[in-house]
Amino acid sequence: MLDGGMRVDDLPGYPLPRSGSDSPHLGQAKLPTNYSEQFREASAGMGGPAGLWHFVYRSIYLDQYVASEFSSPINSPQQQKRLYRGYQKLYATMHDNGSGPHKTQFRRDENFVLLCWVTPDFELYAAFDPLADKALAIKTCNRVCEWVKDVENEIFLLGASPFSW
């Protein structure tokens, strides 16, 4: 992050469970004993951990967001536009008043896997390799949220009033 941005490759290793943590976690499944080996194998050669290519994290209470830099293979403006359109469609379905609010959504197509997670505190949109494993994608999203929470003083303007245009 000191070099100018958040990169999916810089996502820290999976931390030990925090005792007494009150933060919501998606997919509360216990990690297998050989988790670190499985995780390392699943992330080899596919962007970031578990095939993570990009994420957007929006802090609802701060009304600010942070996004990772694009990682390979999302390296052309056309691919970036395709990804943002995917995020846009996901946002629309997550906030559709007709079907009620959703908390999570996992979509897979030929271009990527998109995972969206909405809580009262934040929204997370993440893009993964199309062959990404759902359980590892969920665990990776938990790690992204913990990472952003750990560095929120460095990436968000805290204590500031909302911007008015």
Automatic annotation (TrEMBL):
Give the region (Disordered) as residue ranges.
1-30
One Pfam family per UniProt: Fuz_longin_3
**What InterPro entries does the database record attribute to this sequence?**
FUZ/MON1/HPS1_longin_3 (IPR043970), Mon1 (IPR004353)
Q: Where is the composition biased (Basic and acidic residues)?
A: 1-10
The FUZ/MON1/HPS1 third Longin domain covers 51-151
Superkingdom of the organism of origin = Eukaryota
Q: Name one GO biological process term.
A: vesicle-mediated transport
Instruction: Briefly state the protein's biological role.
Output: Plays an important role in membrane trafficking through the secretory apparatus.
Q: Which PANTHER family match?
A: SAND PROTEIN-RELATED (PTHR13027), VACUOLAR FUSION PROTEIN MON1 HOMOLOG (PTHR13027:SF7)
Membership in a protein family? Belongs to the MON1/SAND family.
Name the chain's protein.
Answer: Vacuolar fusion protein MON1 homolog
